[in-house]
Design a protein that fits this description.
Helices cover about 25% and strands about 20% of the residues. The chain is α+β, with helices and mostly antiparallel strands. It has three domains: about 5-115, no CATH class; about 135-270, no CATH class; about 275-405, Alpha-Beta Complex (Cathepsin B, Chain A). The strands form seven sheets. Strands 10, 11, 12, 13, 14, 19 and 20 form a seven-stranded antiparallel beta sheet that branches. The chain has a three-stranded antiparallel beta sheet with strand order 5-6-7, with helices on one face. Strand 11 and strand 12 (about 305-315) form a beta hairpin. Helix 2 packs across helix 6 (about 105-115), helix 5 packs antiparallel against helix 6 and helix 7 crosses helix 9 (about 270-275). The longest helix has 14 residues, at about 240-250. The radius of gyration is 20 Å and the shape is globular. The two termini are about 25 Å apart.
Length: about 400
């Protein structure tokens, strides 16, 4: 297999979303003084083991070897791997501020295992003729599609390995928010409370195909809490509906309950961008470029520091020499990010990125303060180191990120 095709796949899940599933409540991670410690306590897994892509928390359905080679696992094999991993963990210890009650070690482990692996068949089984009803979940309408307009911080990845799609969704919401349209038609049941959205996706030949979906998305049974993609704005659901539509398009499902399994084991974030807006992909492999060439690539798709073409970036499976993918750097292995633009400060150029988790921005060689790109008619005020947004030195970006790409 072409090594570039392998390395272009990103498939890390959002462990913070996983922790919310286990805790049974939403958590404002950016408000916590030590969010990684709270995450560790909820999952009962050491911090560095959570963010180690060779272990099953971050990448549950793809097993990585020391050399970075990846093996896709069936849901059964992935579940067994997770259960073996969790069986070695001692008694759970929860942060008091979370006020988690009624969880013992075995039930919590079971919830982690169930949350990590969506059931329903092998990921390469594209055909999805039957409606998908994953264990412990129901399909429900959680709110309004839009409250205002799509915003860069809206899409939050859930406990599914589709960081590549959520990062692309965020990039498009930033660069071309008008591309995320709300095309409605009345329900076939003539029910205004059950709108149907018509959403289009582009294939490799830029052929546009539309799918139609309702606002019912899979949520946790009983609590109706989120498990997969959601919005930072708790009142709106457009990222969740877009994720559902993408799953329906990828599986060619003819029903309103598409199987998410196929989109949960990774993909190319540039291809996901093209699926959303159409156009041509240009790849930039960082190891083959100088820092100045990388900066030129980013800036050529920006105006006044603002990315007007959707751009994405992703990291290696195994950290290059001299780099670390752990909590000391805040950079995640085999993970996709949105590129929002660039900044110049203190004689240094920075690349501005967003983690689709909506938190856990990188901390190595980053800026603090507020970023102010010019968006069409005004200067935006974007707080750095919040909602997963950070500005990293271009030279550090070159080392830690495998590639970046643009669709135009």
């Amino acid at each position: 297999m072409d090594n570039k095709k392998v390395e272009n796949n990103a498939y890390a899940i959002n462990p913070f979303a996983l922790a919310e599933t286990v805790a049974g409540k939403s958590i404002n991670w950016d408000s916590l003084e030590k969010p990684e410690e709270t995450l560790s306590q909820i999952l009962n897994v050491p911090i560095d083991e959570i963010f180690d892509a060779r272990l099953p928390i971050l990448v549950p359905q793809v097993e990585l070897q020391e050399d970075g080679k990846a093996t896709e696992l069936t849901p059964k094999a992935a579940t067994e791997r997770i259960e073996r991993f969790l069986a070695k963990k001692p008694q759970l210890k929860f942060e008091k501020e979370l006020r988690i009650k009624g969880l013992n070690i075995e039930s919590a482990k079971q919830r982690i295992s169930v949350a990590l692996v969506p059931d329903g068949g092998k990921a390469d089984n594209v055909a999805s003729p039957q409606p998908w009803y994953p264990s412990g979940m129901v399909w429900a309408d959680k709110g309004d599609y839009f409250e205002d307009v799509p915003e860069v911080s809206d899409p939050i990845q859930g406990g599914l390995g589709d960081c590549y799609f959520v990062a692309a969704l965020s990039s498009v919401a930033w660069s071309r928010p008008y591309a995320i349209a709300n095309i409605l038609r009345p329900s076939s049941y003539d029910n205004e409370e059950n709108p149907i959205h018509r959403i289009g996706f582009y294939d490799a030949n830029n052929k546009l195909t539309y799918v139609e979906v309702t606002e019912h998305v899979p949520v946790i049974s009983g609590t109706l809490d989120w498990k997969y993609a959601r919005s930072l704005d708790a009142r709106e659901i457009w990222p969740a509906v877009m994720e559902k539509a993408y799953a329906k398009w990828r599986t060619a499902a003819e029903n309103d309950r598409p199987n998410y399994t196929i989109i949960g084991t990774g993909g190319d974030p540039a291809v996901a961008c093209r699926a959303l807006v159409g156009g041509t992909i240009s790849y930039n492999y960082n190891s083959q470029k100088t820092t100045d060439e990388i900066v030129k690539f980013v800036r050529s798709n920006c105006r006044s520091k603002f990315a007007f073409n959707p751009m994405v970036a992703w990291t290696y499976s195994v950290a290059p020499a001299g780099c670390k993918y752990d909590s000391t750097t805040g950079v995640v292995a085999r993970h996709a990010y949105s590129i929002l633009g660039w900044e110049y400060a203190n004689g240094t150029t920075y690349v501005v990125l967003r983690n689709p988790w909506g938190t856990y921005g990188a901390t190595i060689d980053t800026l603090s303060g507020t970023w102010q790109p010019y968006q069409t008619s005004y200067y935006a005020n974007v707080p750095l180191n919040r909602n997963g947004i950070f500005a990293m030195k271009a030279s550090t970006f070159k080392k830690y990120f495998y590639a970046c790409a643009v669709v135009k």
